[in-house]
Write a structure and sequence with these properties.
The protein is mainly α. The protein has one domain. Helices cover 88% and strands 0% of the residues. It contains five helices and no strands. Helix 2 packs antiparallel against helix 3, helix 2 packs antiparallel against helix 5 and helix 4 packs antiparallel against helix 5. 32% of the residues are buried. The N terminus is likely disordered.
């Protein structure tokens, strides 16, 4: 009976654990940057060759890392019954922006990548991932607020 009730609770929108919520946010972020990387591969390869592709990969990894940093407060907010999500969304956006800015500076000043292409790729990928991950976060909030 308890196994059946556990399945029923998970089907009805029981709150996730922090690790599972973080893993879902990280996977959504990874999917977003993979889609962006796939869309930008051929144009950058034609425009700048291997150097552009290296910049694209570095920018995608930096944006994904920033998304993982931003997922921590979001995953934490989803596990609490009070749902302090507006503050968590604001904190996640600030953390994502700060981390992306620091990584953009580090990548641009490292000398391993073309400055213009790495900053341009990071900026566009950042906006793409921010849009998709925020929509996903709002969908998750809506999903778990109905069950509360």
């Amino acid at each position: 009976m308890s196994a059946e009730s556990a399945k029923a609770d998970s089907a009805m929108g029981q709150r996730p654990t922090g690790a599972s919520a973080f893993a879902r946010f990280a996977l959504v972020g990874l999917a977003a940057v993979v889609v962006f990387g796939a869309a930008g591969y051929f144009p950058l390869k034609r425009w700048q060759g291997v150097e552009g592709v290296r910049s694209l990969i570095a920018a995608c990894l930096a944006v994904w890392f920033a998304g993982c940093v931003a997922a921590v407060p979001l995953a934490s907010a989803l596990t609490r019954p009070g749902l302090a999500v507006p503050n968590a969304l604001l904190l996640a956006t600030a953390l994502r922006f700060g981390t992306s800015l620091l990584l953009a500076g580090a990548l641009a000043l490292s000398g391993f990548f073309d400055r213009v292409s790495v900053v341009a790729c990071l900026g566009v990928c950042y906006l793409w991932a921010l849009l998709l991950e925020t929509c996903y976060a709002l969908r998750e909030v809506k999903r778990y607020s109905k069950s509360a």
